[in-house]
Design brief:
Blueprint: H1 3-18, E1 22-23, H2 27-37, E2 40-43, E3 50-51, E4 55-58, H3 65-71, H4 76-81, E5 96-99, E6 103-104, E7 112-116, E8 121-125, E9 134-140, E10 143-144, E11 153-162, H5 170-178, E12 198-202, H6 204-207, E13 210-212, E14 223-225, E15 229-230, H7 233-239, E16 248-252, E17 256-261, E18 264-269, H8 284-295, E19 300-302, H9 304-313, E20 319-324
Parallel strand pairs: 1-4, 7-16, 10-14, 13-15
Antiparallel strand pairs: 2-9, 3-6, 4-5, 7-8, 8-9, 11-12, 11-16, 12-13, 17-18, 18-20, 19-20
Helix pairs in contact: 2-3
Length: 347
């Protein structure tokens, strides 16, 4: 595929991707329905790789990006990152905002719970009932902050607690005491409990890591926890009854995700995280190598200038960066000669 043809086709795709539907909703009118339904997707087939859709909204005077992020099942940074220059506390009325609701499903097993740390997002794959639909449920989460990392690898849920009591580890109590904010040895259920109303304990770290709610929902989507995975209160309340003890939990670090859909190479990039869960500027060469590895041996025409731009932005918005290449048609074989290869004998 020549560069001009590739550029033209990708330009058309970029126009289509930016022409997302405009939704004129008042926040209070849609919050309940969004929180109840917007994160559950039914897959048409088991190998579907992309769920959701991007959209745009018009802000009302009373909106904040933090409220809107929660209403649209996003972490606050997800919404702030794709709307640069907008004041998150006072965006004002009549602002056009992009709401990034389209996701490429992470690589690896599509079973149990999958948490992709750079994405700050949890995916849950319920076991489909016989003859029932295949579904995935996804929620924004917080992960570990500096010096308190969320571990990687496969673990599982070993305990579930409603209205848990929090016993701050000694290291956490020392940290708070040094900051002039001493903690008691235990915090019972209620509005002051940072675990919220529901907690699921993981086997990782001898049971020290939890998936739980929060009494500070504004921080969901940030690297602010002591290694635990924190969810919006309504989200964890919805997820908690669905998760049996023993459910596998896969903690992965995939800042670059790709998918082939109808001959198009889709790319979704997020800011990479370091060993402590902190986001940092992407190394474009390293990201490019990740993209090449993900594409593998597939014959594809990639618009590398655009792909590097998407990788540099790392804003989580899916973009079409390549098209399946047309293999060159092999030349037609010349017809076999009917003449003898042996010269005629002389007379």
């Amino acid at each position: 595929m020549d560069d001009l043809n590739l550029n033209t086709k990708l330009a058309h795709r970029r126009i289509a991707e930016t022409a997302v539907p405009v939704v004129l909703f008042a926040l209070l009118a849609v919050t309940a329905s969004l929180e109840a339904n917007a994160t559950t997707y039914t897959l048409s087939k088991s190998d579907d790789l992309v769920v959701g859709e991007d959209q745009t909204i018009i802000t009302a005077y009373s909106d904040t990006l933090y409220d809107l992020a929660r209403a649209y099942s996003l972490g606050s940074e997800e919404l702030i990152r794709v709307n640069p220059g907008v004041d998150p506390w006072l965006p004002g009325a009549g602002k056009l905002l992009v709401v990034p609701g389209r996701h490429i499903l992470p690589s690896g097993p599509h079973e149990g719970i999958v948490v992709n740390l750079p994405e700050h997002r949890l995916y849950y794959y319920p076991k489909p009932k016989r003859g029932g639909p295949i579904q995935v449920i996804t929620y924004p989460v917080s992960i570990g902050k500096m010096d308190w990392r969320t571990p990687l690898g496969t673990t599982h849920v070993i305990q579930k607690q409603k209205d848990p009591t929090w016993y701050p580890p000694e290291s956490v109590r020392k940290e708070h005491a040094a900051a002039g904010d001493p903690l008691p040895p235990k915090v019972g259920p209620g509005p002051d409990n940072p675990l919220g109303a529901f907690a699921m304990r993981l086997a990782a770290g001898n049971g020290t890591y939890l998936i739980h709610g929060t009494n500070n929902p504004i921080a969901v989507g940030l690297a602010v926890t002591h290694g635990c995975i924190r969810m919006y209160p309504t989200d964890v309340a919805a997820l908690f009854p669905l998760i049996p003890v023993g459910t596998p939990v896969h903690l992965i670090n995939d800042p670059v995700k790709v998918a082939w859909v109808d001959g198009e190479l889709l790319l979704e990039a997020h800011p990479p995280v370091d060993a402590e869960g902190q986001s940092f500027e992407p190394d474009i060469d390293q990201f490019s190598d990740m993209l090449k590895a993900a594409v593998g041996d597939t014959t594809v025409a990639i618009h590398w200038d655009y792909a590097r731009e998407v990788l540099q932005k790392a804003d989580g918005v899916i973009a079409t960066v390549g098209l399946e290449a047309d293999l060159p048609t092999p030349p037609e074989a010349e017809p076999a000669s009917t003449a003898s290869a042996t010269p005629p004998a002389g007379g």
